[in-house]
Amino acid sequence: MAASGRFMNWSSVTFTPTSGSPVTITEVQNVTIDPRVVLKGASGDGDLAPTAKTLEYIDPHITVETEDIKTVNALGFGTRGSFEATHNDFYNGSGSGAMTYTVSNCIVAGGQRSGAHRQTGRATLICETYSSDGTTSPIAYSYAA
After folding, report:
1. Hey, which of 2, 121, 122, 127 has its CA 20 to 30 A from 39?
2. What's the pTM value of the predicted model, to 2 decimals?
3. ∠ Cα 125 30 55 (to 5°)
4. Residues 6 or more apart in contact with residue 110 via CB below 8 angstroms
5. What gap in Å lies between CA 72 and CA 23, rounded to an integer?
6. Do 13 and 72 contact (CB within 8 A), yes or no?
């Protein structure tokens, strides 16, 4: 079946420490990839709004919400590595049309643990990213054929 162009659920969510083996994060409820773009505006004289704007900075980060608390707890803060997650195609799952995000340079930066009464506990994993040369984005994506 042709790719739908829509996405639902995540698979193959892994964090691989720089000198270690891939750690698969299961029971994923949500993945957020935020480019955290900073724009710089300029104005002068009697301007009440910016008359020019440009890209100043990009500082992406990834947030994973999961019920797999034990695995997230095993990833120590400050651990450097890479991250990968596949956003499944609406019709074909991890097959044709699925989008895989690959983050080449990231570091475990924190996250929360929570558990409400009579609810499944959750962990949030936050990974900050960094560029290898100051201009190349650490985040890439590709689509399955």
Report:
1. 127
2. 0.89
3. 75
4. 77, 126
5. 9
6. no
Asked whether the beta carbons of 61 and 127 are under 8 A apart, the reply is yes
Closest CA to 16 of 73, 100, 81: 81
Q: Which residues lie across from 53 on neighbouring strands?
A: 41
Q: What kind of fold does domain 7-143 have according to CATH?
A: Pnp Oxidase; Chain A (2.30.110)
Per DSSP, the three-state class of 72 is helix
Report the relative pairing of strands 28-34 and 61-66 from DSSP bridges: antiparallel
Per-residue pLDDT of 55-107, as tens digits, reads: 999 999 999 999 999 999 999 999 999 999 999 999 999 989 999 999 999 99
